[in-house]
Amino acid sequence: MVFDTDKFISCIQSNPSIWEMGSKEYMDKFIKQKSWLNIGETMYPDWTEQPESEKENKGKQNSIMLYFTFLP
User: Fold this and answer.
1) Taking a C-beta distance cutoff of 8 angstroms, is the pair 39, 53 a contact?
2) CA dist 1 → 18, 44, 45 (Å)
3) Do residues 38 and 15 make contact, with C-beta atoms less than 8 angstroms apart?
4) Per its UniProt entry, which superkingdom is the organism in (predicted)?
5) Contact 36, 18 (CB under 8 A)
6) Rounded distance, CA 40 to CA 72, Å?
């Protein structure tokens, strides 16, 4: 499966609780966790069937990709 970077960036941008430090939701870990769950479900159709270890692994990969995507 090829990772769709544009789709990932769009998902992140539509969830300001993940990236907008001035947002009230940014400090709410439950909202942030729900945002990441929604992104996982959008990016990976079989997300809900994946074991937790696989979700964590994909989440770490996405975080690394996000970091390098927005470097100046």
Assistant:
1) no
2) 25, 10, 11
3) yes
4) Eukaryota
5) yes
6) 26
